[in-house]
Write a structure and sequence with these properties.
By secondary structure, the protein is α/β, with parallel strands linked by helices. Helix 5 links the parallel strand 2 and strand 3. The protein is 45% helix and 18% strand. It is globular and about 50 Å long. The chain has a seven-stranded mixed β-sheet, sandwiched between helices.
Length: 272
């Protein structure tokens, strides 16, 4: 099965990306932190932003609401339809061959391609395309999954023993053909992500811990409680508030990036 068909099946038949960032504590933390970090790097609205691999448009909708001129691209037909229905300008396409002109946008945000493009040369194509459509001096931001995330997450969920072969593959290779969780997914080390962004031509690359160490509190809650009531010790203060404050505090210390399940990388297109 080709990557495109795998993604179509995963996001159409097995997985509802439209609800992910609002249906779990971990998802709500990820959403809040993406907004934190985009606020830090994006120029003021009404700047033009390319949302590449933007799914059903959760981030694009937020950007549009803030006054940005957003264009979304995603390979999955269902996502493009959902984004369009939400009033977002969206097109079905491939991050490695963007349909836009050179320097059309003030900034670009690349999420899905960094973990759904398994081969490094394909990720380089996507990064260089994002850079191409971004104006000189503009920022390109990406989301990647930490290679250690499956090890820590499955331990907290007490599923490590049953998933040990998958976790071992990912720790060793950054990929597992036996991974049942996400279609065609690759995982980065911090050094690997920094090197890929730099090699693509971005300057001043920074890697942030998107969910930070506080993200593991949300993983534990989602894994063991789901929709069930939380015990008093986990209700007050709001665990989302705790996790978010933890991630923000850790963001001041670069050595803490390694503790985050998700990574947020950002760099600037060089001014020639």
């Amino acid at each position: 099965m080709t990557m495109h068909l795998e993604l179509e099946e995963h996001y159409t038949e097995r997985y509802d990306e439209a609800s992910r960032l609002g249906s779990t504590v971990k998802g709500r933390l990820e959403l809040a932190r993406v907004q934190d970090l985009l606020n830090r790097y994006l120029p003021a609205p009404p700047a033009a932003v390319a949302d590449i691999g933007g799914g059903p448009g959760v981030h694009a909708g937020w950007l549009k609401h803030r006054g940005y001129d957003v264009e979304l691209l995603d390979p999955v037909e269902r996502h493009v339809r959902q984004a369009t229905d939400a009033g977002i300008s969206a097109v079905q396409g491939d991050a490695r061959r963007l349909p836009w002109e050179d320097e059309e946008f003030d900034a670009a945000f690349v999420a899905g391609p960094m973990y759904h493009l398994r081969e490094a040369d394909e990720r380089q194509l996507a990064l260089r395309e994002a850079i191409r459509v971004t104006k000189l001096g503009g920022f390109v931001a990406v989301v990647a999954i930490n290679r250690a995330a499956n090890l820590i997450g499955s331990t907290l969920a007490n599923t490590l023993i049953e998933r040990q072969s998958v976790v071992t593959d990912i720790l060793r290779d950054g990929y597992s053909p036996r991974n049942e969780r996400m279609a065609h997914t690759t995982y980065h080390t911090v050094a690997q992500l920094r090197a890929e962004l730099t090699h693509a031509g971005l300057r001043g690359v920074m890697i942030h811990g998107l969910t930070g160490p506080g993200g593991w509190l949300t993983v534990m809650i989602d894994a063991h409680y789901g929709d069930r009531p939380l015990p008093d010790s986990l209700q007050e203060p709001d665990p989302l508030r705790t996790a978010l404050e933890c991630a923000r505090l850790a963001d001041r210390y670069p050595e803490m990036v390694q503790s985050s399940s998700l990574l947020f990388g950002v760099g600037q297109r060089a001014i020639l």
